[in-house]
Target: ABC transporter ATP-binding protein
Amino acid sequence: MSLFIEANQLKKRYGQKQAVNGLSLEIRRGEVLAMIGPNGAGKSTTLDLLLGLRRPDEGSVRYWCAEPRQHIGVQLQSTPFFSGFTARENMAMFAAFYGVRLSRRQINDLLTRCGLQDAGKTPAERLSGGQQKRLAIAIAMAHEPQLLFLDEPTAALDPRARREVRELVTSLAKAGTSVVFTSHDMEEVHKLATRVIMICGGAIIAEGMPDRLLKQYQAGDLEELYIRLSGE
Ligand SMILES: Nc1ncnc2c1ncn2[C@@H]1O[C@H](COP(=O)(O)OP(=O)(O)OP(=O)(O)O)[C@@H](O)[C@H]1O
Model:
């Protein structure tokens, strides 16, 4: 099946707030999909619905396999590391939660893939912001998922750390992992994403490959497009 996930007419309300309002989308194999949209647009709620962390009030989500959670890795906006424990120990403990026992070698491999080969013995809370994000991604990769969800993986990082995380996402995608991520950095979205979904008021208002979207809306860059569409 070429689709990982197919969501149909999702709706989710918190009290008076209609956070997601009739949203349909698909997640395809091999893509790096960016979800963009203003604060409060419904991106994180949509991710939660896709991941089965929340139940939609209406609509449905179809998965490509019977046990999707075993094949999906998730990095949420903040990862509560076990303080006082090293990066390696955190990896082992989080993996155990997912029912995965990692050998020393597997931990070394994952840390190396995520550029953390020298940070394994450092307590997680002492790692830099970029290293912590990469550790969160390494943890999300522990069970070798086919699909990775990253919620604002580069938020609040300095330029070097952002670049490190971007390079990691690119290398994971090249190695065959499909990625869905959210970001408020339109330059980054243009660099990383093979497809973009723009969410506003809980619904998709634009969708397509970055360059096609620019052409379609005759915009110079994604930021211009974003500002134009989110202001309408
Ligand atoms: N648990 C909750 N209870 C009540 N309201 C919520 C809850 N979670 C989200 N909301 C509201 O639902 C709307 C959508 O929130 P959501 O976090 O999905 O947006 P977002 O696009 O991810 O925003 P951001 O870019 O700021 O992370 C917002 O108005 C938010 O205040």
In short: The chain is about 35% helix and 25% strand. The chain has a mean pLDDT of 93.
